[in-house]
Amino acid sequence: MIIDKGVPLNHFVDLVESHGEHFDFVKFGWGTSVVTKNFQVKLDVLKEAGIDFYLGGTLFEKYIQQDLFDEFRSLCLSYACRFVEVSNGTIDITNDDKADYVKRLSDDFHVISEVGSKDQAKSDMMAPVKWISDIQADVDAGAVLVTLETREGGKGGICRSNGELRYGLIEEILAAKIDHDKLLFEAPSTELQAYFVQRVGPDANLGNISVSDVIPLETIRMGLRSETLLAFEPGLLDAD
């Protein structure tokens, strides 16, 4: 999942034409879709290329905070969205309420949910068992993917305030009885991308990838960068 933070139109067209084969989704981050000039043109470009998109979960939260759920549904229908994101990373709603929104939207869309708080203190206090139960609740409610939160700056959610990954948390999530194909790991940094490719596999679902990292990430997946060069060439490890 590539995140569009407001890429100029011509740059966006070039991105899709040059690198579109390497990503599955474009997420229009937080509420950028509301203030993006020629937004519909971007959607037309993605449709022509056969690439899916969705609006940032923060926009969903804005609508929910204002008690405008039906208006949010109508907005997504007006853009012919096939996918929508449901999150509670900022607003104060329970995960049971979030799962209910997932279920309600699943009749019209493929729902991508998000687990984890953008608030660092809340993230640090969220125990692995809570992460796992929230993920499972979203899957049971109909989510086709569950995103594990990491802010664009590499903090919050599955990361500590210094940007370090909560490795123990990830191991407990991976050990749970959850289909790994349903997990989308937000990995805005090279370090996180390389870790998940090595730990989960070259086809790990990764998100919040900047537009400038599309090709670099592909080289990580293929073992064409130092971080993963030896990971996929076990014979080289024995050469010395």
| The CATH homologous superfamily | Aldolase class I
Number of helical regions: 12
Distance between the termini: 38 Å
Mean pLDDT: 94
Structural class comes to alpha/beta
Q: Can you name the CATH architecture? A: Alpha-Beta Barrel
The low-pLDDT segments are: none
State the CATH topology. TIM Barrel
Number of strands: 8
Approximately how much beta-strand content do the residues carry?
5-15%
Radius of gyration: 18 Å
Largest sheet entry = 5 strands, parallel
What's the shape? globular
SSE string, helix = H, strand = E? EHEHHEHHEHEHHEHEHEHH
Strand order of the largest sheet: 4-5-6-7-8
In the CATH scheme, the class would be: Alpha Beta
Describe the structure.
The structure is a single chain. By secondary structure, the protein is an alpha/beta fold. It contains twelve helices and eight strands. Helix 8 (128-141) crosses helix 9. The radius of gyration is 18 Å and the shape is globular. The termini are far apart.
